[in-house]
């Protein structure tokens, strides 16, 4: 198990200097440990930005390959998790920009298949509703919401990351928040089909 995160970001995992030294020395088991600790945060961030599981898996692989390739460039001026998170964000946004240039757009189907009529437990149902609502937002709006609320980036940082202005980040956050509020209102959600067996 990784150490307990000291901050709100799911990336905020304190990686011991001794473990990083072993990764730098090319020790495979040390890299695998770092990979296991950061696999879920990287995948989740990529999924929220890209909106597609296959794209998120690609971002995870590309991020970890870059971490392994660039570990000697990590000077330790900031926490390792912040350095790794920056690589993951850059990879996800680069892939999002690439996808935006393709005519097909994004696969926004992030929810579970509809053929199972068994009701979800309340917490899981709420999570599924939120996931569907997020998936329905435009990619740039969803990205801003995730970077701001889940990862704690400022509007200025998001503007730089997305190669946009600070006001773009603020307007996307406001627009996304309003849209989510509408989508999450009980009256606005479609009634789930129930089984009459």
UniProtKB/TrEMBL annotation:
Segments forming domain RNA polymerase sigma factor 70 region 4 type: 129-180
Domain of life: Bacteria
Domain RNA polymerase sigma-70 region: 38-100
Sequence intervals crossing the membrane: none
One Pfam family per UniProt: Sigma70_r2
SUPFAM superfamilies: Sigma2 domain of RNA polymerase sigma factors, Sigma3 and sigma4 domains of RNA polymerase sigma factors
Key words of the record: Sigma factor, Transcription, Transcription regulation
Stated family: Belongs to the sigma-70 factor family. ECF subfamily.
Name this polypeptide is given: Sigma-70 family RNA polymerase sigma factor
